[in-house]
Specification:
The complex is a heterodimer.
Chain A lengths: L1 E9 L11 E7 L3 E9 L6 H17 L10 H14 L10 E9 L4 E7 L3 E6 L2 E3 L24 E6 L4 E6 L1 H4 L7 H12 L4 H15 L8 E9 L2
Antiparallel strand pairs in A: 1-10, 2-3, 3-4, 4-5, 5-8, 6-7, 6-9, 9-10
Helix pairs in contact in A: 1-2
Chain B lengths: L12 E10 L9 H18 L5 E11 L2 E10 L16 H13 L12 E6 L8 H9 L7 E7 L5 H7 L6 E4 L2 H20 L20
Helix pairs in contact in B: 1-5, 2-3
Classes of the chains: A alpha+beta, B alpha/beta.
């Protein structure tokens, strides 16, 4: 199975001394594909570090999975490992708060695992059908559950089987909150149809330009996006 | 579909501002209602001039007086709001206004979750004359409305400052005024607060603002 992946991240309109607090990480080998995005909270001074740590732990823990039943413990394991890791750093866990979402494709067993903690947007189509994770609606724009909140929060998890194809989008809220819900399917088609015709080495640059051109004026949030699709050629 | 822009919401995120005004009979004394009408007009004119492509101010205005509370400006983009003018009469049915504010803020059709947190502004010179404890408690403690930034002005000694201190988000958001002049000053304060949120990189972080000094006011 061959997949194509495009990704881009863009710093929001904010002070120069504040970094882009979004973080993207992915891993792929013959058996496994994992894509994860964290969005460090703007109000937490070390949230980029918290975001990086979350992505690193997500990939590390998913790589360890041997039996599908182990997924039942994945959320708690990630939360525990993240908290342990943050304990070893300076300051309070609240200084490292971050959201995180991930999608893992177990290629051998044809399973897709989705995890979502907070408002990192996830949209997935499997074998031609969109799958929904349930409502993640918040009261107001900058509210989210997150790692480091001090509350008991778990990832919203889902497991799906796939037979031949999938495509998915993960995006931080700076993008996800601006998307028209009723054009989701068309957006997936747009990414596939547009980017399959662009030479692979140039794709991420074109995507970043699109984000800068159309999304940076929408809000001050950092913006990150990953789109993956199975290449049927 | 030619670009990513075709899949994006084209409107800026709403920044709700909701005002509740006392138009009871006592507001007719010492020129308070006249000062209020001028201050409200100045406020609407001022924030209409503010421009941002990242947030759009939406205004709703409620009032309480006579025998009931009323919605005088439904939740509307500020660019479409016309000046309004009040006459003072009757009692102070503030509890009815609290109920209406709550209903508005909980309505996700009107105020979508894509909105910034509302700023809720209350101005009164009296004590509620209807049942207000439960509506206030529900407004400040439950659901989405509990997350609004709540600011209040108590005009004169008859205002129920105990009740207002419960209403506001933090103690510095309860402003005491003595006279009509202070009403205009208060609305300057509110204008500064709203425009600061509009321009802020973090509009939902609570701002700490000072009431303007008299010499900065243009009376």
């Amino acid at each position: 199975m061959k997949t194509d992946l495009i990704k881009a991240t863009s710093k929001g309109d904010k002070d120069e001394n504040i970094p882009n607090q979004d973080y993207i990480k992915f891993f792929e080998d013959d058996n496994l594909l994992v894509v994860t995005i964290s969005d460090g909270l703007g109000s937490s001074k070390n949230s980029l570090e918290g975001a990086q740590e979350a992505c690193k732990i997500v990939i590390s823990e998913i790589k360890k999975i041997e039996e599908i039943e182990e997924i039942n413990f994945l959320s708690e394991t990630i939360l525990y490992k993240w908290e342990k890791s943050i304990e070893s750093k300076l300051g309070n866990a609240k200084d490292y708060r971050t959201t995180n979402s991930f999608i893992a494709v177990m290629k051998n067993s044809n399973k897709i695992i989705i995890g979502q903690l907070g408002d990192v947007f996830v949209s997935i189509r499997i074998d031609g059908l969109f799958r929904y994770l349930g409502s993640n609606e918040k009261d107001f724009i900058n509210e989210t559950s997150c790692l480091g909140s001090g509350r008991y929060e778990n990832y919203k998890m889902a497991i799906f089987d796939f037979s031949h194809s999938f495509d998915f989008l993960i995006a931080s809220d700076g993008i996800g909150d601006e998307l028209l819900e009723d054009k989701n399917e068309m957006l997936h088609n747009y990414f596939i149809n547009k980017y399959k015709n662009i030479p692979a080495p140039k794709r991420n640059k074109v995507l970043k330009k699109e984000i800068a051109e159309f999304l940076n004026e929408k809000n001050n949030d950092d913006k990150s996006l990953v789109f993956v699709w199975t290449n049927m050629k | 579909m030619d670009s990513l822009n075709d899949f994006l919401i084209q409107k800026p995120r709403p920044l709700p501002v909701i005002i509740a005004i006392d138009r009871s009979g006592s507001m007719a004394e010492n020129g308070k209602i006249d000062a209020l009408n001028i201050a409200l007009k100045d406020f609407i004119d001022s924030i209409k001039e503010e421009d941002s492509n990242k947030a759009e101010i939406y205004l709703a205005v409620y009032s309480f007086g006579g025998d009931n509370a009323s919605c005088d400006v439904p939740f509307t983009p500020i660019s479409q709001v016309n000046t309004l003018s009040y006459q003072a009469q009757g009692r102070t049915p503030m509890g009815g206004a609290f109920r209406m504010l709550k209903t508005l803020i909980e309505d996700k059709e009107l105020i979508p979750s894509r909105s910034y947190k509302p700023t809720l502004i209350l101005l009164t010179d009296g004590m509620p004359t209807d049942e207000w404890q439960i509506p206030l408690e529900e407004l400040i403690s439950e659901g989405r409305s509990s997350k609004a930034f709540r600011v209040a002005m108590a005009i004169g000694d008859d205002a129920d400052k105990n009740m207002l201190s419960k209403f506001v988000s933090t103690s510095e958001y309860l402003i005491s005024g003595e006279n009509a002049r202070d009403i205009r000053k208060f609305f300057r304060f509110v204008t500064m607060s709203v425009t600061q949120r509009l321009k802020s990189q973090t509009p939902d972080l609570q701002q700490v603002l000072q009431m303007p000094e008299d010499d900065t006011l243009d009376f």
